[in-house]
Amino acid sequence: MAAVCGAAKCVFGLLLIIAASTTAQSNKTLLRLQFGPQDTTIIVGQAKNVTLRLHGPLSEPVTVNFTQTNATNANAYVQVTPSTIAFTPPPSNFIDRSERVSLRGLRAGIFDLLAHLSPSSALVDQSQAFVRVTVAKSWSLISVSSVIGWTYFLAWTWSFWPQIWENRTRASVVGLSFDYLALNLLGHTMYAAFNCALFWNGSVQAEYLRRNPRGLIPVLANDVAFSLHAVFATGLIIVQCFFYERGQQKVSYTARAIMTVFALVVMISGVLVATGTYLWLDFFYNLSYIKLAVTLVKYVPQAVLNYRRKSTIGWSIGNVLLDFTGGSFSMLQMLVNGYNYDDWDSIFGDGAKFGLGLFSVLFDVLFIVQHYILYRNSNYIELRGENYPGPGSVTTAPRQNIST
């Protein structure tokens, strides 16, 4: 046994030596052209420096020049200084040289600055020979956008808790649509799975970057935190439904049919992954599409329930106000960024996020009108206990402040 272990260690060590020598040889024979950093922000009228590095074997003089995506020579985003850089091979024919490149903002926009080696060679690695540049009109607007972003993130994150607190205070979930809860849990679960995969899974990230060679992973840590918190909070509300008075309400057959369709989409996507037709990135994209579809329909059951009961008791207005704040500030941030970066395509070229924010805000406006205008008198009567749907009489009916 000891001999076998010793032989295994020798083989493993030999493999490591071979891998190291192969890597070293590969690094020595491949000429690399790379920028650092690969993501930078510049203000119009101001300049910022990036570093261009040429590393590897070089046997003849070469020149590097630059191009800006989505720009013409007469309408460039930045002024690049120097416009070209010449590299001369050292006596050893192995170069490791870095040059500072100054970028002065000319007009707002988002683009890639690309470096090109001339004459080019098949042995040149240019996978990092770009820098994603964001040219903004003002640092102040960047700060405003950041404050707006944190505001809508916190508003959406805390929007679950007024409903949780109201359920606990009333010891009842009467008036809260079970269809809304079921669809909401499904949507947030799909969104959390998509965010976690794109944030943590290396193979999914690699596939995304392969399809978007100069792209950045679109999922950030706050996206993961929000979606996981949303699943937890919605699940907690559903748990409350098992312990608190809930009347005769159940998840409707319509909602069950919709969720069955979405479950079939997940199942079919899984089969396509298993058969090699789909990659995992496609699978998780389908989950995100389910989230979008759920967001479009999840508010309808609650609005209909309020209409049928002629009351909003049980549906927390705090939830609505925070959701309205989150949706409004989300759209406001998109508008501020669109102006600051002159990037209106991010809104109108792909209007899914803006459209969903607008859709949720419109429903929130409907809920606010139902609560404060249409059913205000009904809410007052119900809160006095004269038409309270839960157990108990006037003396045992929980009170709620309808002004908040």
UniProtKB/TrEMBL annotation:
Q: Which domain of life is it from?
A: Eukaryota
Q: What kind of membrane protein is this, topologically?
A: Multi-pass membrane protein
GO terms for molecular function, please? Answer: L-cystine transmembrane transporter activity; symporter activity
May I ask which residue range the UniProt record assigns to the signal sequence? Answer: 1-24
Name the record gives this protein: Cystinosin
Record-linked NCBIfam families? 2A43
Quickly give the catalysed reaction. L-cystine(out) + H(+)(out) = L-cystine(in) + H(+)(in)
Example of a GO cellular component annotation carried by this entry? lysosomal membrane
For this UniProt entry, what is the primary localization, expressed as one broad class?
A: membrane
Residues spanning the membrane: 139-161, 181-204, 224-245, 257-281, 317-336, 356-375
Q: Which family does it belong to?
A: Belongs to the cystinosin family.
One Pfam match, given by its short name, reads: PQ-loop
Subcellular location as annotated: Lysosome membrane
Q: Which InterPro entries match?
A: LC_transporter, PQ-loop_rpt
Keywords, alphabetical: Lysosome, Membrane, Repeat, Signal, Symport, Transmembrane, Transmembrane helix, Transport
